């Protein structure tokens, strides 16, 4: 009789454990977005301290201690498997860049969509840059002031040679 009671108690205990485990809410996916020291939205490593620039994710270098920034689940189908906050879609949606390369005064998309309105919403040229329409496609709205008065036409209107300080 005691043996039957023990078996029943074990079955009841197992049932309670099963109900408790199955009734636990599903664990919400962890957020990986963070803010880098350069004020970009970045990728948070498993250590919950290291925040990588978007361009450090899926770059064939393990920048996170456990290599989660190079996980096959994320890096196997770029950019489709990357979190949306890590990428910027260019004017031609077939092309993309990492979001930290947007608004860096360099024509990374090839069509200047990463440097101009309405897609990129970039601020005006920084202090060490000259606003103009550049001759070369390397730049979009500004050129580095180091190119001013260098004897080479870098702006369509020659302002880099005659107006730029």
Automatic annotation (TrEMBL):
Stated name of the protein: LDLRAD1-like C-terminal domain-containing protein
Location of the LDLRAD1-like C-terminal domain: 123-162
One GO biological process term: vesicle-mediated transport
Signal peptide: 1-15
GO CC annotation terms, alphabetical: plasma membrane
Gene3D superfamilies: Low-density Lipoprotein Receptor (4.10.400.10)
Main location, first listed in the record: membrane
Localization terms from the record: Membrane
Pfam family, one: LDLRAD1_C
Species of origin: Eleutherodactylus coqui
Keywords: Disulfide bond, Membrane, Repeat, Signal, Transmembrane, Transmembrane helix
Matches recorded under InterPro entries: LDL_receptor-like_sf (IPR036055), LDLR (IPR050685), LDLRAD1_C (IPR057430), LDrepeatLR_classA_rpt (IPR002172)
Protein topology in the membrane: Single-pass membrane protein
Source domain of life: Eukaryota
């Amino acid at each position: 009789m005691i043996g039957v009671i023990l078996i029943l108690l074990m079955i009841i205990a197992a049932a309670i454990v099963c109900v408790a485990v199955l009734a636990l809410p599903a664990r919400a996916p962890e957020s990986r977005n963070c803010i880098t020291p350069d004020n970009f939205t970045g990728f948070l490593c498993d250590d919950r301290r290291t925040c990588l620039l978007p361009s450090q994710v899926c770059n064939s270098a393990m920048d996170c201690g456990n290599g989660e920034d190079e996980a096959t689940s994320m890096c196997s189908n770029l950019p489709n498997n990357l979190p949306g906050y890590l990428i910027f879609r260019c004017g031609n949606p077939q092309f993309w860049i990492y979001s930290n390369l947007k608004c860096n005064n360099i024509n990374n998309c090839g069509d200047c969509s990463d440097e101009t309105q309405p897609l990129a919403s970039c601020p005006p040229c920084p202090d060490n840059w000259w606003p103009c329409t550049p001759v070369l496609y390397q730049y979009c709205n500004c050129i580095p002031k180091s190119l001013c008065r260098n004897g080479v036409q870098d702006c369509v209107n020659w302002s880099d040679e005659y107006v730029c300080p």
